[in-house]
Design brief:
The protein is built from nine helices and 15 strands. By secondary structure, the chain is α/β, with parallel strands linked by helices. Helix 4 crosses helix 5, helix 5 crosses helix 6 and helix 6 packs parallel to helix 9.
Length: about 300
């Protein structure tokens, strides 16, 4: 008999997903995790009442986190993913043949083990790739202490609440900048700006105080109920944001990268924000008094 699992993230409305089969459930003092099967969404992971991923649409988020920064770089070699223990972003990063090493810093090994057990189609062979380096550590501490320098740092964290809040802080982003190469790109997620504009505002303000160029971009993630999903981009190199569709298409063909969501046209269009979000971004940048919004 099926059961309905309710998403409780939103204070004034609810969404419920039908669980045809419960694969795993863990209720502790610190978290409420449930993994289940759904006829529309495939395998669903919900943590503390928030939909984290589904095997049906995970490719959207993971492709947009990985290919937007890496397609903008001429020759990305060293990439760091903070969080993202499901392996989805890492899977997309490794599609780029120039990548020599893709480092995943995940605080909890069980996140990786859970993915391999319950939705192995997401990581695929990612963790067996010789270019993959897995570090089980606190991402904030690792970035603050590392002597390595990366072409791109992709922060695949959950919402800025509870333990993940530090991965959205000004101090963490400052450490990320130090760990980037001179023309490196920093990417993080910013949730649903229609419902939670403060998330986009706070990250944009922090980015703009640290980097010369800030460029939030959107994708449509069906399982994140509440409108377009925001990601945020920071770099001191503006040329990365001036790449036309023909050049991107040429890079995609040369690198032999197959995608289900990202295209050269989607890449460029993603940076075109609706007015309500553009206003949030412009105000945050003005408050920071340093960075520039490209475009």
């Amino acid at each position: 008999m099926s059961r309905w699992v309710e998403e409780t993230f939103h204070p004034h409305w609810r969404v419920r997903l039908e669980a045809d089969e419960i694969l795993h459930e863990d209720k502790t003092e610190h978290q409420d995790l449930v993994i289940f099967k759904n006829k529309t969404w495939g395998t669903v992971l919900m943590l503390d009442g928030v939909c984290q991923l589904t095997t049906s649409d995970e490719f959207i988020y993971h492709e947009m986190m990985a290919h937007v920064p890496l397609m903008a770089l001429d020759d990305p070699k060293q990439v760091l993913v903070v969080g993202g223990g499901d392996g989805g972003v890492l899977r997309e990063v490794l599609k780029h043949p120039s990548v020599q090493r893709a480092m995943l810093c995940e605080i909890d090994r069980t996140v990786i083990d859970t993915a391999l057990k319950y939705y192995p189609e997401i990581p695929g062979a990612t963790f067996d790739d010789p270019r993959t380096v897995v570090v089980i550590a606190d991402g904030r501490k690792f970035v603050a202490e590392t002597d390595e320098r990366f072409d791109a740092i992709i922060v695949d964290s959950s919402e800025p609440i509870g333990p993940s809040a530090v991965l959205h802080s000004h101090e963490f982003f400052a450490d990320c900048k130090r760990a980037l190469k001179k023309d490196g790109i920093l990417i993080t997620q910013n949730g649903l700006p229609f419902l939670f504009p403060e998330h986009l505002s706070e990250t944009t303000r922090a980015f703009a105080s640290l980097f010369d160029f800030v460029a939030p971009y959107f994708c449509t993630q069906p399982c994140y109920f509440g409108g377009p999903f925001a990601l945020n981009w920071a770099s001191d190199e503006d040329d990365h944001l001036d790449i036309g569709q023909k050049r991107l298409a040429k890079r995609q063909k040369k690198r032999g990268i197959a995608t289900k969501y990202w295209t050269p046209a989607v890449h460029n269009a993603a940076f075109a924000l609706p007015a309500y979000a553009q206003g949030v971004v412009e105000q945050a940048i003005a408050e920071a008094g340093r960075g520039k919004k490209k475009g």
